[in-house]
Automatic annotation (TrEMBL):
SUPFAM superfamilies: P-loop containing nucleoside triphosphate hydrolases
Occurrences of domain ABC transporter (ranges): 14-229
Family annotation (InterPro entries): AAA+_ATPase, ABC_transporter-like_ATP-bd, ABC_transporter-like_CS, ABC_transporter_ATP-bind, P-loop_NTPase
Any one GO MF annotation of this record: ATP binding
Record key words, sorted: ATP-binding, Cell membrane, Membrane, Nucleotide-binding, Translocase, Transport
SMART domains linked to this entry: AAA
Originating species: Conexibacter stalactiti
Domain of life (superkingdom): Bacteria
Transmembrane regions listed in the UniProt entry: none
Name of the protein: ABC transporter ATP-binding protein
Length: 241
């Protein structure tokens, strides 16, 4: 078994080598390698239960590696499928909760709220928000940390179709502006192809496909190339079209 090393605070991107994570007899991640460059947006696809969330948790430092090396920049921020807001705190205080305390905390929280187009909602209670608004607050709470690594675990899965499209655009824009290394876990091939500079497929505890999608445009002329990629990825996931 190789030495386990989890380091934070590196200037670079994510560098994972030989990662192993098991729960009892069940080996979920087995000799997995993955790299994500600073500013790169990587989407991670894989069948349910293949270990995507486990990988994200290890990258976030919430879960440990049993073997291998995990080099991940800090600070990191995680956005989950549910917004996980504290109901007894206002929207602004929920966002501030993500930040280091300090004189600038309030100003930075207000800026983050403005970035997710919720500047007018600073003083309201989370229970008065729609699902999409609540998820934007969760995004603001992540942004206020100025993460060098942004980890998104199916953040749009619970949203209606229209809200989902708007959120995808917003996240794409925010990542382009702030340039964290970003890993988005999704079940949605369409979403992965739309947002990812790279699309990874995870199976049998490893990354079994690593596709560079950055050269493919998202305009009408690129539709055939995008469709080919979509079909290939669906094939990897065992879906025939
Ligand atoms: N803390 C834990 N204790 C025991 N087993 C766990 C634990 N966390 C995850 N597992 C198991 O590890 C496997 C991978 O889980 P994980 O949540 O990483 O998969 P996933 O690919 O994110 O799935 P989904 O797409 O359904 O969210 C599952 O079999 C799960 O039951």
């Amino acid at each position: 078994m190789s030495a386990v090393a989890t380091t934070g605070g590196t200037a670079g991107g994510v560098n994972v080598r030989g990662l192993r994570r098991a729960f009892g007899e069940r080996v979920v991640i087995d000799d997995l390698d993955v790299q994500v460059k600073p500013g790169e947006f990587v989407c991670l696809l894989g069948a349910s239960g293949c270990g995507k969330t486990t990988l994200l948790r290890v990258l976030a430092g919430i879960d440990r590696a049993d073997a291998g090396t995990v080099d991940a920049p800090s600070p990191n921020a995680v956005v989950f499928q549910e917004p996980r807001l504290l109901p007894w705190k206002t929207v602004l205080d929920n966002v501030r909760f993500g930040a280091e305390s300090g004189r600038d905390a309030r100003r930075r929280a207000l800026e983050a709220l403005a970035e997710v187009e919720l500047a007018g909602h600073a003083d309201v209670w989370p229970m008065t928000l729609s699902g999409g608004q609540a998820q934007r607050v969760a995004l603001a709470r992540a942004l206020v940390r100025e993460p060098r690594l942004l980890l998104l675990d199916e953040p749009f899965a619970a949203l209606d179709a229209l809200t989902r499209i708007r959120m995808q655009e917003l996240v794409g824009e925010l990542v382009r502006r702030h340039q964290p290394a970003t890993v988005l876990v999704t079940h949605d091939v369409e979403e992965a192809v739309l947002l990812g500079d790279r699309v990874l497929v995870m199976a049998q505890g490893r990354i079994v496909r690593d596709v560079d999608a950055s050269a493919i445009g998202r305009d009408a002329a690129s539709a055939p190339a995008l469709d080919r990629l979509r079909r290939e990825l669906l094939g990897d996931l065992g879906v025939t079209t």
